[in-house]
Write a structure and sequence with these properties.
By secondary structure, the chain is an alpha/beta fold. It has helices at about 10-15, 45-55, 70-80, 95-100, 115-120, 155-165, 170-185, 185-200; strands at about 30-35, 60-65, 85-90, 105, 125-130, 145-150. It has a six-stranded parallel sheet, sandwiched between helices. Strand 1, helix 2 and strand 2 form a beta-alpha-beta unit. The longest helix is centred in the C-terminal third of the chain and has 17 residues, at about 170-185.
Length: about 200
């Protein structure tokens, strides 16, 4: 009779050992992909969107964290563009933190789950593309508030991304909202929710 629910979350306490919230650098726009290099994550589309955005932001950078069977796509892209950096697999937040600090946003066009929580824990807006099989964490992403669910139309989506990469006040608002959601999804909040569940009559 006391069955209830609590948010799915990640270890924000480990992140907080290495990171205090700060806005992305003003002088540099950087896209960050973090996840397995498998077909469902659509790394090829990350690179396609990055190339399209470079026509508007010539100094744009792309950083990629993760490894997997589609690594050859990344290796080929890195060989052609020095503004693409591949870090391979990273699980230590001490190593992830400086990369997240540089990121303007986190972009995983494919199926998304706890990576949403991860981005929000760092106060970074999260972008993905609409799909039927995103994880339940997709409910934390509020379109236009702390990130975007894009339409899978390259031209339209690029206009959306460019609209806030070129507008510092809009990017700041997205980051602050992402941080607010990250705080809501923290371990501490999760513990509070679990406590209320067991105390609930």
């Amino acid at each position: 009779k006391k069955a209830f629910w609590a948010n799915n979350t990640l270890d924000n306490a480990e992140i907080e050992k290495h990171y205090s919230f700060q806005l992305p650098p003003e002088e540099q726009q950087t896209l960050l992909f973090i996840g397995r290099l498998i077909p469902s994550k659509r790394i090829e589309d990350v690179i396609k969107y990055y190339k399209a955005l470079k026509s508007k932001f010539q100094q744009l950078k792309l950083e990629i964290i993760g490894d997997g069977p589609e690594q050859t796509i990344v290796i080929e892209a890195v060989a052609k563009d020095t503004n693409i950096t591949w870090h391979g697999t990273l699980v230590d937040e001490a190593k992830i933190t400086p990369i997240m600090k540089r990121a303007s946003l986190v972009f995983i066009p494919g199926l998304s789950g706890l990576s949403i929580n991860h981005a929000f824990a760092y106060g970074r807006p999260y972008l993905t593309i609409k799909a039927n099989k995103h994880g339940p964490e997709i409910s934390y992403l509020e379109h236009g508030i702390n990130g975007y669910i894009l339409n899978d139309n390259l031209e339209e989506d690029i206009l959306v991304i460019a609209s806030f990469l070129s507008d510092r006040s809009k990017l700041t608002r997205l980051c602050n909202n992402a941080k607010q959601k990250g705080d809501y999804l923290s371990v501490q909040k999760w513990v509070e929710q679990m406590k209320q569940i067991f105390l609930n009559d």
